[in-house]
Amino acid sequence: xxxxxxxxxxxxxxxxxxxxxxxxxxxxxxxxxxxxxxxxxxxxxxxxxxxxxxxxxxxxxxxxxxxxxxxxxxxxxxxxxxxxxxxxxxxxxxxxxxxxxxxxxxxxxxxxxxxxxxxxxxxxxxxxxxxxxxxxx
Amino acid sequence: xxxxxxxxxxxxxxxxxxxxxxxxxxxxxxxxxxxxxxxxxxxxxxxxxxxxxxxxxxxxxxxxxxxxxxxxxxxxxxxxxxxxxxxxxxxxxxxxxxxxxxxxxxxxxxxxxxxxxxxxxxxxxxxxxxxxxxxxx
DNA sequence: AGCAAATGTTTGGTATGGCAAACAGTTTGC
DNA sequence: GCAAACTGTTTGCCATACCAAACATTTGCT
Lengths: 137, 137
Prior knowledge:
2 copies of one chain form a homodimer.
Chain A: H1 15-31, H2 36-43, H3 47-59, E1 63-65, E2 71-73, H4 75-98, H5 103-113, H6 119-136
Antiparallel strand pairs in A: 1-2
The first copy, chain A, binds a DNA duplex through helix 3.
């Protein structure tokens, strides 16, 4: 596989898109609904940006909208969001529990990488953490 | 620190820019010189793209150009490049030596994150790896 | 000298992803 | 009922970052 460095943007999803999915997911869960404005407020971006970005996610089949403009994740969107959350949690746990990185910094670092780690890395990191916590915990 | 998710692009350097620096560095080291065309070929992008991107790095003081259009890193550019390489090596080592991730996948994952990990994480990852290799190696 | 190849820059196009601001609907309150 | 507030979309603009293609310049060879 040549041009490894070019694969950076060739992920299933971008950082921004991932956070739009997470926003919809969290808003639905905690408030029962998610509209464009809610997502914009959640992410601290303008409604214009949120509108455009969410439209994009709709066109990719990750988000659905009902007759009343209420947003929710499709099954595929839910799967992507779940995977992102899982990767973030795993890496965060590694940073904090294993490396003793400051929680704030761990939050930043795990947030930046949550959409970039491969399934293989995530799976093996999980295994490692389970073993580690059994031993040291 | 709010808007953690927005910090993704607020790094010292972008993924693309980092690889332009690494290209100049490697070309200088292995061939003795680095020109726009060399960087373009190295990164498998057009000379137009390389020209624009390198101009940007020049304006940021990370790259210098002599009278003959030969490029080299400034001290600051060298420092950034070195840090990127170090982070990539550390994470690669963690993936391969600790997690047993496939080398090809580890290359991809470490390449994606090389410019994103914090100094704290890098420093603590290094400590961890030293200990780990003394024990298990 | 002169032409061709190599090198480098610029221009116009794509895409993401921010912004502000104009605009269009809908809902709410008086 | 009507104005104000709220919600959503669209339009221009910015920056990054890629492309192709046109253009300019420099180098090299005969």
